Amino acid sequence: MDSSPPPPRATVRPLVAADLPRVVEIFAPFVRDTQVTFEEEPWDVGRWEAKRRELADGGLPFLVADVDGVVAGYAYAAPWRPKAAYRHTVEDTIYLDPRYTGQGIGTALLDALLDALRAAGVRQVVSVVADVPDAAGSLPLHRRFGFVEAGRLTAVGFKHGRWVDTILLQRTLTTPADDAGTAGTAGTAGTVPG
Ligand SMILES: CC(C)(COP(=O)(O)OP(=O)(O)OC[C@H]1O[C@@H](n2cnc3c(N)ncnc32)[C@H](O)[C@@H]1OP(=O)(O)O)[C@@H](O)C(=O)NCCC(=O)NCCS
Measured from the CB, is residue 94 less than 6 Å from ligand 1? Predict the structure, then answer.
């Protein structure tokens, strides 16, 4: 009989302001110790609060995975570029406390994030993944959800004394209206493949 403990059960829910200190704690080591993010200074609660408001004002999701009352990770989507015609395209971001990786929590977060983005009328989701070992989990996670590789930007980051490439992944979202061939309000591209 298998006596190993069952994996933790994560509840994915919208972030509330009280979660921000945990978001600070989760993100800071990635900033300091890895090239997964090209940020070089950790964000404080105030910076995250501004991000939270910006996303809420834009109708975009900011979710957390809650395991027994502890925030194990977070995911959000922000506008891909500021120019107006990019308004149906977002970039996703997902980070877990390393103690919680490899247990399906990233999958639960990305699944809920894509559902929320679909409901918000988003059409394209782009993921920008640094080509470094610490970000290795991001590629299989996104591929699992149908993201396809859209290109590579060579040596666009310089952090901790080395040049880093990014890999671009992209996923098209469809809505029930698309599937019925009656799309038209969210974007101008009409029906697109899922
Ligand atoms: C990427 C990340 C969110 C994945 O979350 P996770 O909870 O560990 O992922 P899951 O357990 O749901 O696994 C999803 C898939 O990724 C694979 N995977 C996870 N970590 C992996 C790793 N380090 N190396 C290779 N594959 C990995 C799993 O085997 C699974 O693949 P499958 O669908 O073929 O079975 C998490 O590892 C993380 O926070 N990494 C550091 C930050 C980061 O890179 N964020 C992305 C920047 S946007």
Answer: yes
